[in-house]
Amino acid sequence: MAPGDYGNKAVPTYIAAEAETTPLPKITVPEAPPPPNSGRGLGDLPMRVVYRVIAGAVAVVVVGTVATVVLLNRDDAASRVQAADIPAGVQPTAMPTTGESTGESTGPTSGPTSGPTAEALAATAGPDGSTPSPQSSAQSSAQSSPAASGSPSGARSAMDAALSDPRVPTLTTSTRKLRALPGRTTTTRGLVKDQRSGVAFPRFAKVWKAARGNPFASRQMLPAAKGSRFRGMLVSCPVPIPVQESLRDTAFLAARWTLNHQPSGATITWSASQPLKVSKRDGWLLGYRVNYTIKGKKRTSSAALALLDVPDKKPGLVFISIPDSQKKYWKDIYKVMSSLHVLPQENED
Fold it and tell me: Contact, 124 vs 133, CB < 8 A?
């Protein structure tokens, strides 16, 4: 038996332990890749980040709530201010705009108009040509608006107001003609042809001077009287008040309107009331004295107006008034009223 050959004998255990062995391969399990588009969950965030996000959201909600409350309170305050500016029982109305009239002849207009017309503004112009106040212009515009003049109820209410006015006595049914007052008639030079009103009347020379027509269609004035701002005036315009069923009633309303050009508190005493026939057209003439007090002294003016029917237009109004401080020109009143004409219209032969 060769050395080291043990044959079939058992090998000692210590020898077997020393035998060379081959190391086993290392087995590793590969880590599974994360699923695509997977984000970190709320649980993966640090708690301080979560607290900051919640605090920011709460702050946004609080700011939005405060801003909403402030805006609502501001709107409520504005509503209360607007409501306080409007007196109880008064309905707010739109304020219309107006244009300045040039006093030139204009053709008929179509459609409704807004704001005071030249005729409405004429109701508040002072006898010295002063500009009417916005309040009086608005009141006059309401009385002479197309709606009021075209509505039977508006015309009726205007007549009711005039009949109840203590400054204007009721007209009698009897005819009373205008008489010439003493004095000397001023020289005339032709006619004033008021195309807008459709009437013509004498143009005085010398002391009477043509003045700016607006808001009237035409105007002539005497020089300013010493110690008084009221002076003689001769004007024309389409009648600036609601037209009634008869020329007589319309003239009555027009006479009341002329008190806008007299001192405050003036009253009327009738001196004439008569029908007219001018250029084959109907008309009505009223003469009257205007009584008033200035600085404790009783004064008067002599006045007259003529209302003439004009085709396709409102009646034309010619009005003249002269205070007692210029009574030497009172005879000019008769001259005007006895020399009236209705201008021919284009559609007339």
Answer: yes
